TrEMBL record:
Its main location: membrane. This is Myelin-oligodendrocyte glycoprotein. Keywords: Immunoglobulin domain, Membrane, Signal. It comes from the Eukaryota. The lineage of its organism: Eukaryota, Metazoa, Chordata, Craniata, Vertebrata. Residues 21-136 form the Ig-like domain. One of its GO terms (biological process) is T cell receptor signaling pathway. Residues 1-21 form the signal peptide.
């Protein structure tokens, strides 16, 4: 027979594992519009709202598959960031505990026009959503 405490631990672990895989990444379906020089926030969130501070959050350019912003182990990681975004991106830290993954881009440039993918992953699961940005002017 399995000791009662161990069985409880195994059941709890299984529930946690199941729970962590059950999120969906949600972003607006319509394109966002910005003018050159403006700041823009690309909205993205988890449903249901889950604390994502311990997860890996990566924003990438859709066509290039290159990193716009990376957050891992509770901190921003700039080593893999595309040169064009250095010093121009910020993850909305105050929303992470409630599943908000919004990315602010400062001083929008014509280069920023296009699709962005908001990705979230932990050991067991992965989710993504696409945000489209149209830059005018």
């Amino acid at each position: 027979a399995i000791p009662r405490g161990l069985l409880g631990f195994v059941v709890t672990l299984h529930l946690l594992r199941l729970g962590s895989a059950q999120f969906e990444v949600v972003a607006p379906r319509h394109p966002l519009r910005a003018t050159v020089g403006q700041d823009i926030v690309l909205p993205c969130q988890l449903s249901p709202a889950v604390d994502v501070r311990s997860l890996e959050i990566r924003w990438i350019r859709h066509q290039m598959s290159e990193t716009v912003h990376l957050y891992r182990n509770g901190e921003d990681v700039y080593g893999a960031q595309m040169e064009e975004y250095i010093g121009r991106t910020e993850l909305a830290r105050d929303g992470l505990s409630s599943g908000i993954l919004d990315l602010r881009i400062t001083g929008v440039r014509p280069f920023d026009d296009g699709q962005y993918v908001c990705t979230v992953q932990d050991a067991d699961s992965y989710g993504e959503a696409v945000v489209e940005l149209e830059v005018a002017g």
